[in-house]
UniProtKB/TrEMBL annotation:
Transmembrane segments: none annotated. Belongs to the class I-like SAM-binding methyltransferase superfamily. MenG/UbiE family. This is Demethylmenaquinone methyltransferase. It comes from Desulfomicrobium norvegicum (strain DSM 1741 / NCIMB 8310) (Desulfovibrio baculatus (strain Norway 4)). One of its GO terms (biological process) is ubiquinone biosynthetic process.
């Protein structure tokens, strides 16, 4: 499958589960997703542009957390799935500084150096090739700007003596199928987590793409990681 076909497939999958997405996020993570997003936003860096790009913004929960913590910022919320953004817009009608826009992470409709931080939560693994997304993120970041990624760790690492891995491979797709009536979407989620690079490999990707000051931190025993990288000044 070429990258364009992959992008269309991912967009279709998320369009189909948009109405269930928030509920399933909370249910499947036992509410930990709220804490993970809070920790992600704590790594955000503000600067002269007064703007942040929330990429793969989905239903805008990260955008809302950014606005809660930094109420003076302008937040550009971009996602490939129109249905996800439309679902999220209902939650931000009273927050005019959040701007939802449908966009491809490989071709951002933004000028060079226009944001101080790019956040991306549970979205970088859905963009192929990732190198094109990194290139665009570097382009739109101001010099010294920061990329903050929240993403699942690789499902190849044994967590909680394999209990998480069993949950990921066997339980998650069945729960997602029961609630969303879309068996492919949550099987896709499990498959992409299992295939995703481990934290050190992702850090190398970021350095190879041109970022510096790359670091990462595990949360919830390594179920998720926060990666932080900087555009060179």
């Amino acid at each position: 499958m070429n990258p364009n076909e992959h992008g269309k497939r991912v967009s279709s999958l998320f369009d189909n589960i948009a109405t269930w997405y928030d509920f399933l996020n909370h249910f499947l993570s036992l509410g930990q997703d709220i804490y993970w997003r809070y920790r992600l936003v704590r790594t955000l860096r503000t600067g002269a542009t007064g703007a942040v790009l929330d990429l793969a913004a989905g239903t805008l929960d990260v955008s809302r957390e950014i606005m809660r913590r930094h109420p003076t910022l302008k937040i550009l919320s971009m996602d490939f799935s129109r249905a996800m953004l439309c679902s999220g817009k209902k939650k931000v009608v009273s927050q005019p500084a959040i701007f939802p826009v449908q966009a491809d992470g490989r071709a951002l409709p933004l000028p060079d150096g226009c944001v101080d931080t790019v956040t991306i939560a549970f979205g970088i693994r859905n963009i192929l090739p990732r190198s094109e997304a990194y290139s665009e993120i570097l382009r739109v970041l101001a010099p010294g700007g920061r990329l903050c990624i929240l993403e699942f760790g690789t499902g190849q690492a044994r967590i909680w003596q394999g209990a998480y891995n069993f949950y990921l491979g066997k339980v998650l797709p069945r729960i997602g199928r029961f609630f969303s009536k879309n068996p492919e979407a949550y099987q896709y989620l499990a498959d992409t987590i299992l295939a995703f690079p481990n934290a050190s490999a992702l850090a190398k990707e970021l350095r190879d793409a041109g970022f510096d000051q790359v670091g990462y931190q595990a949360l919830s025993s390594g179920i998720v990681y926060i990666h932080v990288a900087q555009k060179p000044s």
